[in-house]
Amino acid sequence: MRSMLFVPGDSPRKFEKASEGRADALIIDLEDSIVTEKKAEARGHTLSMLKSRPGPHQLYVRVNALDTGLTLADLAAVMPGRPDGIVLPKSQGGDDVRQVATWLEALEAAAGIAISSTRIVCVATETAGSIFGLGSYKGCSPRLAGLMWGAEDLSASLGATEKASGGVFHSPYRLARDLCLMAAAAAEVAPIDTVYTDIDNLAGLEQETRAARRDGFSAKALIHPKHVDIVNAAFAPTEAERAWAEKVIAAFASNPNSGTLRLDGQMIDKPHLRAAKKILGQT
Questions:
Q1: Which residue range or ranges hold the HpcH/HpaI aldolase/citrate lyase domain (predicted)?
Q2: Are 201 and 208 in contact (CB under 8 A)?
Q3: What does DSSP assign to residue 247?
Q4: Would the pTM count as exceeding 0.85?
Q5: All residues at 6 or more sequence positions from 279 whose CB lies less than 8 Å from its CB, including other chains
Q6: Nearest of 200, 254, 213 to residue 3 by alpha carbon
């Protein structure tokens, strides 16, 4: 999964347009894009969208944060639509995942859905306090599929006046990004890069996405359909990377009892083999 495109939960028209694209996942949003008085209406639209299943995309639902008191009602409304996963905003750590997992188990049983089949992705850096919970995700639930970092709400939590300048995030946001990446790696789940908000700056989007892939992120959240193809292409391995990966895998296949090998004048070992398999999408 490379691209996760947000779609407002009250807009079937935007959902239909997003479904025509090549995003790997669509995140139907019940949180920030929906005003309070339209939350209930958006739940109904979201359920209809889930049931329509217009394409091959994975379908996630971003529910409202636990501290709003709306999360359980969101889940109860949408689970009959069998979403592939839930996106939990403003998550504070593993305990939040466990709470949502408990609710999901009951709702899956009620809807006749296979228990534990609904995944959870957490937006894990949206408050100052959430940074200190990043180390608690490891082992919290087998449902946990990814950790996404976010800068917009974190800015408000910090009381900051600016997140970035010249297309470069300031140090508090780089810290949140890097810690989220490491927390996801430690928990063995997907690290997901934040949205790119300068919608028409496609060159900047490509640059940011390539930097995310370089550092270890495996997917990016998106807010506009025209970003999808650029992000998908940026996460695709280059021909040189594929050729290197194939050579590494072939070298170890020919020497199954060796822990280290010499390839093109360089020493390679098992971490290189794992990297090669990741490039080619092998496990």
A1: 2-225
A2: no
A3: H
A4: yes
A5: 237, 241, 242, 244, 245
A6: 213
Burial (Cβ within 10 Å: 0-12, 13-18, ≥19) of residue 8: buried
Longest dimension (CA), the chain: 65
**pLDDT 10s digits, 28-57:** 999 999 999 999 999 999 999 999 988 899
For residue 267, what are its two tokens? 């020493």
* Long-range contacts from 164-171, C-beta under 8 angstroms, 24+ separation: 167/198, 167/204, 167/207, 167/208
Question: In the chain, helix, strand, coil percent, each to 5?
Answer: 50, 20, 35
DSSP string, 29-61: ESSTTS-GGGHHHHHHHHHHHHHH--SS-EEEE
**What CA–CA distance (Å, rounded) separates 267 from 131?**
37
Q: Is the dihedral of CA 181, 144, 59, 55 positive or negative?
A: positive
Parallel, antiparallel or unpaired: strands 168-169 and 164-165: antiparallel
Residues 209-236: tens digit of each pLDDT = 999 999 999 999 999 999 999 999 999 8
d(CA 85, CA 168) in angstroms, rounded, equals 31
d(CA 220, CA 231) in angstroms, rounded, equals 7
User: For the purposes of burial, counting CB atoms within 10 Å of the CB of 277, is it exposed (0-12), middle (13-18) or buried (19 or more)?
Assistant: middle
Q: Which residues of 134-149 are buried (b: 16+ CB within 10 A; e: fewer)?
A: bebbeebbebbbbbbb
